[in-house]
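Known limitations

Structure tokens in this collection are predictions and should be treated as such. Users comparing against experimental data should check residue numbering before alignment. To illustrate the layout, the record for Sulfurtransferase-like selenium metabolism protein YedF is reproduced below. The input appears on top and the generated tokens appear beneath it.
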Amino acid sequence: MTEKYLDCRGMTCPNPVIKTKELLEQGEVAQVTVLVDNPAAKENVGRFLSRSGFTVQVAEEAGTFVLIGRRKEGEPGVARKAATEPAAQKILVLVGTDRMGTGDDVLGEKLIASFISTLKEMGRELWSVVLLNAGVKLSVTGSPVLASLRELEQDGVMILVCGTCLNHFQLLEKKQVGETTNMLDIVSHMQLADKVISLT
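Generated tokens:
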């Protein structure tokens, strides 16, 4: 059993939780100290550690939240996984917007970036991501989520980008990731998917 230290200051949600999860999955941990610099990360990391079998203490020092998780007696000290792995299903995520929700566009852009970067947590069940309408703007030069989409593509996730939509926004030459496709292909993939998650 070991003690671990993780500095997540400067990271936006959900990255502190993802980093903490990755650290715990490396091996049994008796104690972990995580540094974050915003209240949302403090709450999210604290809840994750509690669910993973740790007691959590939180202190604030000059704008930095220090979370110390100590393994509960009898707990394995690793991020919990399901006892049995269900058969992988094909999940298709349909993204028809370049921001999430309504009320504040700046916040909406941050939320969609967070959503795309977190998709990898679906694991092997994530089969395809379809970008259409304003969602195609996520695939072009200057998009804040290009790196996340490329990572998904490298991991075998199909990224389908609506060609009609690219043309409409005059962005065809600026596309940097994914396969330019048509509505027939999109509908066919939706038929093949076990589950479709729509974000429009």
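For this record: Residues 113 and 144 are 7 Å apart (CA to CA). The mean pLDDT is 89. Please report discrepancies through the issue tracker.
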